[in-house]
Each structure stands twice: as C-alpha cells, then as structure tokens.
Amino acid sequence: MSQESLPKRSELPSEKTWDLSALFADDQAFQASLDQLEQEVAQFQANYKADSPGQNLGQGILELSHLLEHMSRLEHYAFLPVSADHHDNQAANRLRQTQQALQGHRQALIFFENKLLELDPSALQQIEAAYPQTKDYLATIVNRQKDYLGGSVEEALGYFAGVFQEPESIYNQIVTSDLTFPDFEVDGETYPLSFVLYEDYYMYHPDTTVRRAAFDAFYQELGKYQQTAAENYYSQVLREKKESQLRGYESVIDFLLHDQEVTRDMFDRQIDGIMTNFALVMRKYITHLKDELGLQSMTYADLKIDLDPEFDVAVSFQEAVDYVRQATQPLGEDYQAELMKYVDERWVDYGRNQGKESGAFATMAGDQQPYVLMSWSNQLSDVYTLIHELGHIMQMKTACKHNLFISNEPSLYVVEAPSTYHELLLSNYLIQSSDDPRVQRFARYKMITNTYFHNMVTHLLEATYQREVYRLIDQGQGFGAEELNQIKRSVIADFWGDAVELNPGVELTWMRQAHYYMGLYPYTYSASLVVSTQAYLNYLSQGQEAIDQWLDFLKLGTIPPADASEVAGVDVTTSQALEATINYLDQVVDEIIELSARLKA
Q1: Of 203, 245, 418, 426, which residue is the least packed, with the fewest Cβ within 10 Å?
Q2: Which of 479, 590, 520, 516 is nearest to 271 (CA)?
Q3: Contacts of 301 by beta carbon, 8 Å cutoff, 6+ apart
Q4: Beta-carbon neighbour count of residue 120 at 10 Å?
C-alpha cells in the first residue's frame, strides 16, 4: 500500500493501537496535570533556589526526580499521538504547546543542578551518605563538573534546548509528511511505493526485478530532497561543534562521548574492528547468498533478501505471542509474567496507517505503562522487531524499580544490549525448535540478517559515516549533499569491497535514518550487541549463573558502561569481547554454508 492507500489513523481497530489512557484518562486530565506541574515547579523554586542554612539538597534531588518523571509522563502523552500520525494537526499543536511549557519548566529547574555542580567533592559525598539512592545521579554530576560552564551559561544553553532539537523534528517532517513516492511499474504491473513500504516490504521482496525497481524509484525520489536534508543535518552538526568548543573540547566526538563515559579508544575500536574484520564475515555470507539464489551479481538493493525465501513463514501479531513467550523462557517466570502484559495492556501500536513514523521505538515514562511503536507486515522480521523493543521495555521497567527516575537510564554504549539479547534468545529458540537442516539454516541466517545485519552492519556503517562527518567539522570544513554522498558511498564500498555492486543512488542512504540527530548513537548498536552476544554465549555455557548476571545487569541505572558490562559478565575494556563476537559470527556463517551443502546432497 502507498501512504495514500493506507487507512487513516481513525480507521484502525483499537487492538492495533496503544492505550494512552494508562497515562491520562483524557485530555482534560492531561491539562489538569500540566497545570499542577506549574505549581510544583514554583514550589520547588521557592524551596531551593535561595540558599538557606541547613538546606536539604538530598531531599531536593528526590523531589527533582519526581518533577522530571511528571514531565516525562506529560511529554509522552503529547508526543506519542504525533509519532503514530503526523497528519494529526491537533495532536501536533498540543505537542508544540506541551514542549514549550515543559521547556520553560526545565529552564526553571536548571538552577538546582547548577547548585550541585558547584559543590566540592566532600559536600557531594555527604549528600550521598545521607541519601544512598542518589549515588548514581551524583556520579553523573561529578562527571559533568569536568566541562561545567557556570550557572549563567548553562541556563542560557538550557533556554535554547528546545530549538536545538528542531533539526530532528524537521527531518521527521520531511520523511513522514513532505516526502511522497510515485508508483513504479514492472512488466506492466503497477506497484505503490512509500517510505514505510520500501523499508518494511520492498527491501526484502523475493522478486529481484521488483526489488531493484523499487530501490531505483525510492532513491530517485530521495534525491530530490537531498539539499534540504543536508542543510538540516549541517545545522545539527554545527550546533554540536559550537557547544563542544564552548566546553573546551578539541573534537566534537570527544564532547559527545563524554556523557556516555566512553573513551575515544572504545569508540574507534568498535568501528575499526567491525569495518576490518566483521566485513570479511559479511562478505562471505553475502557471496554465499548470491550463489545460493543464482544471482549474477549481488547489488546493494539485494542485501536484505532471504537465503531461502520460499521457506519464510507469515506470522501474525497474535501468532507472535507464542514466539515471544517461548524465546524468553530462560529468563524465568517472574520476568515473563511482567513481559507478557504487553498483550492485554496494549503496549504495542502495530497497525499501519497514514502519517505513521517508519521504524520502531520503545519508550516509558517512569513507572507508567510502556509503549512500543512499529508497523506489522506479517513477517518473521516483525517478530524480531517486536521482541527487540520488548527487550528495551523490560530493561526500562526493571531499572525503574531499582533506581531513581533521574538516574535510571543506562549509558548509550549498552542501551541496545537488552533488546539484542532478546533477539538472540529468539534465534536460539528457532534453532532448538527442529532438527531439520532447512529449519536449522533458516534460524541461523535469520540471526545474521535480522540481528547482526541491522545492528552490526547497517548502524555501524552509519557510525563510520558519522565519524567522517564529524572529522570534517573538526577540521573546520563545512559540507553539503555532495560531500555527504561521497562519504556514504565510500564507507559502503570500503565495507563490502568487491562482494557487492553499488547501485546508483546508494550514496543517499544517509537520508534514511534519524539517528544522526541523536549524537553518537549509531555505533552503540554494535557495542551493545557485543555485550549481549557475550552474555548470551555465557548463558549457553554457564546456564542459570549467567542468567542471574543478566538480570542483575538489567537492574542497573546510570553507571559507566564498562562497569555495567562487568556486571553482565563481559569485559569491554579490551578488544577481546569484540573479537570473540566476530569469531562466533564467522562460525555461524560457516554453519550456514555447511547446512546449504547438506541440503543439496
């Protein structure tokens, strides 16, 4: 279906949509809560803005955490409807008004964090001693003291925070509202095309002619918007560079890594190790894919096709319930009891409708009901997407129970580990479900194409491209669409070598992802997957002991990623875990090739 032929949001049955009444019963209750927040913020200012003898800053941290959680709940109620339908002008206006109000409240609260940032270590230690639950938050304060600019400057930057987020909003508007695609034709038959249809359907289409024609039509239309998209992205990167200079960093990369508490060595090792070593594994797999399917050449448009397309099975959203339940059994009854609430409580918005964002995400406002956005197309890849996002949700729910809201988010370096761990459990379930070599091969190549291709290839190539863009900015150079196209094409060519023929338009792939507006986020997918892979392999060899370590890992809040990984039984301070992951995947590809040979015998 094209965007135009998809149903309107109002035409979807309720069971295919999420239940936002768990946040607020209706718009009136939402507005009352927003008004109440204003009073709470004013009271907090009255209590803590002026210095006074015996002022209890530890109690202030607890109250600040509550206020931020309240804001998150309001923000979720406002932005979730827009994510599900960018054509809903009423929801878009409410979101803008809510963001403006919340930005004003956040601005009004900056003074408190600045007050903590100006304390000496002994004073922070006294607060922690009196309020041990503030430990992780206070550790982030100590880390931020390294580039603190003083109260007046921080307040000024906070004043513009909402404006700084506009490039991402503009990108989403281009993709969901302005960007439209014409139908394309193959052998006299007309096919509809949209952004979501290409990402979720045509990219995997078993008919080579249709798949490549869709690629050509998709990228030809993308190209019409490349100058605007490049200028918008430039504004994002330039803003990040200016703030990095303001805070005393020579490189914008080091500035963006600082809050993640990740060293430049960890960042570069992740990118370089995969570009050099994992590339060889993927070239071997993709060459086998070409040979098995009898393709004369493997083009970039063909990378996501199935090794055995006739064996793929349709999976409805209802049928996926059993996949999720069976796959996550190793994590225990308590874990599953919480997880499976996603069905009856309508956590997942999976219907396809006009104006809906492409891709998927998971989110949760404190201890409120969580939410997942995705579009279901009855493919096994949808099950991987679902179980991936539910992995995020379970981390959020577990961390929320054991940490303050203000410090319950993990470092970006490990944030994708719970989701990809879920994917590995799904692949393991598929592998264990049958001795049939065709099923065995199916499970393994689904692991490669769904889990590792997406997270260790697609997002890693984004990260490599992103690193080159930031290097340009660090050198004082600007860029437009032409420079971005050159960088992206070069990165893709370096990874795939002679194994893949690059179609015209492939250089525009940078236009397909909003991650570039989220700082150094793309590389964290592969970093997190190294953590989850090693933890998964520990489970296969150690059983319950490794499961217990993983459940303890999920309880963690905001701590340095090396420390968090250690709780999961993984050492990320050296290249060993990355190398072991790549070796494991090389073994999986060899097993796929061996199973193909058995099936031909």
Answers
A1: 245
A2: 520
A3: 203, 211, 212, 214, 215, 216, 503
A4: 8
Q: Which of 292, 397, 285 is nearest to 339 (CA)?
A: 397
Tokens matching residue 391: 């992995």
Select from 585, 577, 491 the least CA-distant residue to 280.
585
Q: Is 520 in contact with 411 (CB distance < 8 Å)?
A: no
Q: For helices 226-246 and 459-474, give the axis angle rounded to 10 degrees.
A: 60
Cα–Cα distance for residue pair 64/115, rounded to 1 Å: 13
Helix, strand, coil percentages, rounded to 5, for the chain: 70, 5, 25
Using DSSP bridges, classify how beta strands 361-363 and 371-373 pair: parallel, antiparallel or unpaired: antiparallel
Neighbour tally for 394: CB within 10 Å? 24
Radius of gyration for the alpha carbons in the chain, expressed in angstroms and rounded: 24
If one counts every other C-beta atom within 10 angstroms of the C-beta of residue 8, the result is: 12
Residue pair 319/379 in contact by the 8 Å Cβ criterion: no
CA separation for the pair 101, 89 (Å, rounded):
18
Neighbours of 162 (CB within 10 A): 17
Average pLDDT over residues 493-503: 96
pTM of this prediction exceeds 0.90: no
Q: What's the distance, Cα to Cα, between the start and end of the chain in Å?
A: 41
Gap between the Cα atoms of 98 and 267, Å rounded: 36
The model's pLDDT over 46-89, given as tens digits with 9 standing for 90+, comes to: 999 988 887 899 999 999 999 999 999 999 999 999 999 988 99
- Judged against a pLDDT cut of 90, whether residue 479 lies above it is answered with yes
